[in-house]
Fold:
Amino acid sequence: MKSESIRILLVDDDTMILKLIKRHLRAHFGRELKIASTVNPGEALSINANEGFDICITDLDMPAFNGFNLLKTIKATNVLTDVIILTGYPSSNAIRSAFAMGANDYLVKPVQEEALISTVRFYIERIERIRREILATNTEPQLA
Structure:
């Protein structure tokens, strides 16, 4: 990751899951990722509004403000944010609904390290490719 750091927001009401995901991400990607995490979906919205993120990894089943609501709000804020859903209950209806609302991917709990890393790596590479394309477009000479 040579360009601007990738910003990742982790949201899950289980602090152990947040710690595990963060540890896996740090072990594989080092400090080049900027990672924010919270157990509170409302706080996640506030953090996202203030900072903006490239990737959001969020649980679907959380009290009061579920992952579907968080997904809709994050996508409304920035359609380019890649949202990866975490679910312990991978029903086809829930997954289909999440994709219909703009989710990019999903992972089943308990999250397997290999699946997490390969999924996040895919989106990091995608984001970096988009950034390079934008930079190339913005630096090309303008023809009159």
